[in-house]
């Protein structure tokens, strides 16, 4: 149930969402899959309880060109960031 303790049915639901996302995006490493799972649980507990919505949010997180909210866009405009040559990327695959 979104926002509360995870029940066995929630865990099964989240496992299926994570598996679908990882299969669709070619994510194979254990570390990357764990990162996806943690994100899925976090979003689920914040109230995103539909598979399609979760898949959409996870896909945006894995897209390095997706617009971001919070401090990252401001950081990208800072002189410190602009001086860097390495572009941030999505989770490793």
Helical residues, percent: 55-70%
Q: Give me the number of helical elements.
A: 5
Termini Cα gap: 29 Å
Order of helical and strand elements? HHHHH
Shape verdict: globular
Instruction: Please outline the major beta sheet.
Output: none
Low-confidence stretches: 70-75, 81-88
Class from helix and strand fractions: mainly alpha
β-sheet strand percentage: under 5%
What's the number of extended β-strand segments?
A: 0
Rg calc: 15 Å
Average residue pLDDT? 78
Sum this structure up briefly.
The chain has 93 residues and is mainly alpha-helical. The chain has five helices and no strands. Mean pLDDT is 78; it is low at 70-75 and 81-88.
């Amino acid at each position: 149930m979104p926002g509360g303790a995870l029940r066995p049915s929630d865990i099964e639901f989240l496992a299926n969402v994570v598996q679908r996302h990882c299969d669709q995006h070619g994510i194979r490493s254990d570390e990357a899959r764990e990162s996806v799972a943690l994100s899925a649980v976090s979003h689920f507990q914040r109230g995103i309880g539909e598979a399609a919505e979760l898949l959409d949010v996870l896909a945006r997180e894995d897209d390095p060109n997706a617009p971001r909210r919070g401090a990252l866009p401001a950081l990208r405009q800072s002189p410190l960031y602009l001086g860097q040559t390495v572009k941030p990327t999505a989770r490793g695959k």
